[in-house]
Amino acid sequence: MRYLVSFLLLLFLGSCARLSVGRQAPLFTAHAVGKGDISLSAMQGRKVLLSFMRNVGCPVCNLHTHHLRLYADSLQRLGVEVLMIHQSPIETIEKYLQQDERTWTFTFVSDQERILYEAYHVKPSFFRFVGSAFRGALSKRKKGIKLYKTKIPQEGKRGMLGADFLLDESGKIIALHYARYIGDHLTPEAIYRLFKK
């Protein structure tokens, strides 16, 4: 009985294990807003940034997305495909994109069922969600709200945290970062430096 419990515990811990640098990124097919279905396997030969956000109605995520957008041209010159993954449904992401007059070069993916979040072990955390208030989330929230032109609803699991995965041309993870609090992403500067290596 003791061995069975140990085996089940190891199995459970293994299923909860986060991804690590050097391993192949899990392949997937998902719906990209305005582009239809896309697959990670079709992106072989290109560098890819998978940026898991909370939802498009999250002001802190909105602030990070706009900061990353300042590096859009630089990342494009490096041949980087940027996928912004959200829990938000397609209709909400469309509303979010339509409020902005500029053209987005990023690909926005709707993962309302959180299939990709599960595959990449991006999880919610109530305690880290609450603790975000002490990690600068409130000031970032105010700045992020000012960037909206229309009210965008927040949808999905409330305590969801983000993550960033940088993939090389073969689909291997060359860098990653799991958020410790809301708004804890790799900075655009760090992402650019890592891809430029």
Please tally the β strands and state the result. Answer: 7
Relative helix content: 25-40%
Biggest pleated-sheet summary: 7 strands, mixed
What's the name of the CATH homologous superfamily? Answer: Glutaredoxin
- Secondary-structure-based class equals alpha/beta
Mean pLDDT: 91
- Percentage beta strand: 15-25%
The tally of helices reads 8
Shape: globular
SSE order, one letter for each helix or strand: HEEEHHEHEHHHEEH
- Rg is 17 Å
Flag low-confidence runs: 2-15
- In CATH, the architecture is 3-Layer(aba) Sandwich
Write structural notes for this entry.
This protein is α/β, with parallel strands linked by helices and 197 residues long. The chain has one domain (30-196): Glutaredoxin (3-Layer(aba) Sandwich). It has helices at 2-16, 59-69, 72-77, 90-98, 115-119, 126-131, 137-146, 188-196; strands at residues 29-32, 36-39, 47-52, 80-86, 107-110, 163-167, 173-178. Strands 2-1-5-4-3-6-7 form a seven-stranded mixed beta sheet. It starts with a helix and ends with a helix.
